[in-house]
Design brief:
Number of strands: 4
Structural class: alpha+beta
Strand order of the largest sheet: 2-3-1-4
Order of helices and strands: EHEEHHE
Largest sheet: 4 strands, antiparallel
Radius of gyration: 15 Å
Distance between the termini: 18 Å
Number of helices: 3
Shape: globular
Length: about 120
C-alpha cells in the first residue's frame, strides 16, 4: 500500500484566523478523528505558522499536513459531503488560493524511540 503525503499552505485572512480555527476545530477535526480511527489518515496536523515566506501582509498562513493510507483516502476525504460543505465555507476565510502539494515519500528519518510514531 502506497502512502500519500499531502501538504497544503492555507492563506487565511489574519483578522479571521480565530474564526477559522474555531470552525476547523468544530467541523473538520471530528472528521480527522474518524479518518484516523479508521487508519485512512495515518497522521494529520494543522500548524499555525510563526514564519512563512509565502505569508503576506494581513495573512496568517497555516500548514496542513496529512499522511494518508493511500491516494484513495485522499479522494475519500475530499469527496466526503461534510468536507465539501465545510470546504466551501472555509474558502470565505481565504483571500487567495492555498498552495497544495502531494506526493510520495523519498527519504525519512526518525529520532530513537519515535519510529512510526
Amino acid at each position: 500500500m502506497s502512502r500519500e503525503y499531502t501538504t497544503i499552505v492555507l492563506h487565511i485572512a489574519a483578522d479571521k484566523a480565530a474564526d477559522f480555527e474555531a470552525m476547523f476545530e468544530r467541523e473538520e477535526l471530528p472528521r480527522w478523528d474518524d479518518y484516523t480511527a479508521r487508519a485512512r489518515f495515518l497522521e494529520a496536523r494543522l500548524i499555525k505558522c510563526r514564519f512563512s515566506h509565502l505569508q503576506q501582509e494581513g495573512i496568517q498562513d497555516y500548514v496542513l499536513q496529512v499522511v494518508m493510507a493511500d491516494s484513495e483516502a485522499h479522494h475519500e476525504h475530499d469527496s466526503d459531503p461534510g468536507f465539501e460543505d465545510y470546504n466551501k465555507r472555509a474558502d470565505a476565510f481565504q483571500p487567495e488560493e492555498p498552495t497544495v502539494t502531494f506526493g510520495d515519500l523519498v527519504f525519512e528519518r526518525w529520532a530513537p524511540g519515535r519510529e512510526g510514531a
